[in-house]
């Protein structure tokens, strides 16, 4: 057996805690899967994004999002405080940079749940990130889930479905695809990809 080359770590690169990016069309079940996974594995740190979107019933500031004004978002962007940001279906969303870098520095697994444009920015700035695409079992099921959630008016659903067509076409850009048929199965697969187990 060949000797380990000098300077290489005894830990295979894939065993390191890493940055995982979860993307997929609105309504596919990203939040549901992540919540399910984190119930049993809260050690996977989920970045809390800033958004100009209004809170949905039950959403809490600092837990689900940092709900900010347009002016506050302008400042976050201008001051370079976001690792990535994007406009999605009429609102802006962005990942606070410092918190993510601190967690990675501390060796903790980090999960970002962001849209396609954000995933592309992270891929460019942090190529070691693992990009995971969550796909619906079918287009009709995606429409059913997005409509059935009952959180957006019809015109917003239309915008989100238009974005979904673009996002589904970009699936080959991702390192991995998980099909969200069973929340439990996908949560388990996602956990494995974050290298916690
Ligand atoms: P996203 O975060 O991707 O926008 P959500 O997590 O809000 O999506 O899920 C959208 C809707 O689909 C919710 O009503 C959720 O309960 C439902 N849902 C999520 N995963 C599944 C699944 N595997 N089977 C059936 N319904 C699901
Ligand atoms: P929602 O309004 O349904 O919570 O989110 C809409 C879309 O914005 C989803 O695709 C979600 O993943 C994405 N999103 C949430 N936070 C961020 C973020 O910080 N950056 C980017 N680029 N997208 C985000």
UniProtKB/TrEMBL annotation:
Keyword Hydrolase on entry: no
Main location group: cytoplasm
A Pfam family it matches: Guanylate_kin
Protein name: Guanylate kinase
Organism of this sequence: Streptomyces violaceorubidus
HAMAP family: Guanylate_kinase
Keywords: ATP-binding, Cytoplasm, Kinase, Nucleotide-binding, Transferase
Domain Guanylate kinase-like as annotated: residue spans: 17-197
């Amino acid at each position: 057996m060949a000797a380990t080359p000098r300077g290489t770590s005894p830990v295979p690169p894939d065993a390191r805690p890493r940055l995982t990016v979860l993307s997929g069309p609105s309504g596919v079940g990203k939040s549901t899967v992540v919540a399910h996974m984190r119930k049993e594995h809260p050690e996977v740190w989920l970045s809390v994004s800033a958004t100009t979107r209004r809170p949905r019933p039950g959403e809490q500031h600092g837990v689900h999002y940092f709900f900010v004004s347009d002016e506050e978002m302008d400042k976050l962007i201008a001051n370079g405080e976001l690792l990535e940001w994007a406009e999605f279906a009429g609102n802006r969303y962005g990942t606070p940079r410092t918190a993510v870098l601190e967690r990675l520095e501390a060796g903790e697994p980090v999960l970002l749940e962001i849209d396609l444009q954000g995933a592309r920015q992270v891929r460019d700035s942090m190529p070691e990130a693992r990009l995971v695409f969550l796909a619906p079992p079918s287009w009709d099921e995606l429409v059913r889930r997005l409509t059935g959630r009952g959180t957006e008016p019809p015109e917003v659903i239309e915008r989100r479905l238009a974005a979904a067509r673009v996002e589904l076409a970009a699936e080959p850009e991702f390192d991995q695809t998980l099909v969200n048929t069973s929340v439990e199965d996908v949560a388990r697969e996602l956990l494995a990809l974050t290298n916690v187990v």
